[in-house]
Amino acid sequence: MQALLQHSQTLVRPAVMLFGLAPERLQTGLLSALFNQALRPLLEANELDFLGDAWVQVHIRDINQNWFFSVHKQQIQVARQAQAKVCFSAALHDLLMLASQSVDPDTLFFQRKLSISGDTELGLALKNLLDSLELAELPPFVRKPLAFYAALYQSPT
């Protein structure tokens, strides 16, 4: 387990960087499919409608990757470039810990590990909505890898 912990970021970071080098259409198609599947209940309940057609930028600081997300006709759209209304920025590890609900977004924010810029009202509404998601309600193909990653960092070393 210790060896896996030591190498997890060494494996995850290059994988995400490599994904960032894949053709744009492949990246946006896979991410759109992933997020539409994972957030289907929110989309069907119109809980993401407050975004309107605004684009949200996710900037992964330590590997300098950006993806932009929007909701249009109850579908999450993904782009590599867009005019973002709000930007969430953090290191890959912190974003994964946030997604796995192993760390509170406010904790990361006050530690300056997560920044929200642009339309902060929109950003806070989105942060609060995502924070209210239950990890157990996510599809297994999202929940299990996030839980595994988080468990590596919560286990005693």
Describe the structure concisely.
The protein is α+β, with helices and mostly antiparallel strands. It has helices at residues 2-21, 24-38, 40-44, 92-99, 105-110, 120-131, 140-154; strands spanning 55-60, 65-72, 75-79, 84-90, 114-118. It has a single domain (2-154), classed as Nonspecific Lipid-transfer Protein, Chain A (2-Layer Sandwich).
User: Which band does the percent of strand residues land in?
Assistant: 15-25%
Q: What are the secondary-structure elements, in order, as H or E?
A: HHHEEEEHHEHH
Query: By helix and strand content, what is the structural category?
Result: alpha+beta
Q: CATH topology, which one? A: Nonspecific Lipid-transfer Protein, Chain A
Q: Percent range for helical residues?
A: 40-55%
Question: What are the defining features of this structure?
Answer:
157 residues; alpha+beta; Nonspecific Lipid-transfer Protein, Chain A; 5-stranded mixed sheet; 20% strand; globular
